[in-house]
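(Fold this chain)
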Amino acid sequence: QDPDTTAFGLLDQILEENADQIRVAANLDSKIWPTQRLSALARMIVPRGTKPAEFAMFLRICDRYGLDPMLGEAWLVVDSEKGGGKISVLVGRDAYLSIADRHPDYEGYEHGVVCENDAWEVVREGERITVNHVIGKNRGPRLRAYCVCHRRGRRPVLVVRDWTSYGHLQGKKNWRNNPDDMLETRVITQAHRLQFRIPGVRVLGEVDDDETPPPVPGQTPALERTQDRIAELRRQ
């Protein structure tokens, strides 16, 4: 039987012999990332067909940012149509906030959705950025969202995005049902990404909502794949 068609796939078999090499490649502490933990991730979280190098890259990003994939803080998506060479590490908005919270110089953030009848202005004074936002009684249609991310010793980062910038996404389910949340997520994650230099990860919505080619046939979104793998494991 082809090992990649088994419940756990080829990666789990490779781990039995090459776990140390994967840890070295990803610069992992064996006490924090024992072989048993790597094996559990390979079985329950990682998409079938993932190569050891892709798995090592995923683990390195999780370790660097202190993300626990078993808690749903990060997901790995592999585009098998491109030979497994293109991977995406997806996180939620809270992952960016958790990364920032652990930094000793983090001083919080301000954010909001601005509507037509709100009073809103941005004041720049030297190194400072102040947002004055007064919410109107009858707010009217939404116009934009903003986020200011503060870090001691650096200039604050301001990100503003107009609602009309996402017209191509507003027909999608998440944007129809939670328009303010989706708009705020974009500005909050971008402000923290810029302020804390957080490369290598993308917000789940940035992939699900992009106007990109459809997923490879037979693949499911990362969250559904995780649930499917757990259910598959329980049936064994």
Observations:
- The two ends are 17 Å apart (CA to CA).
- Confidence is low (pLDDT under 50) at residues 1-9, 209-223.
- The first strand starts at residue 75 and ends at 79.
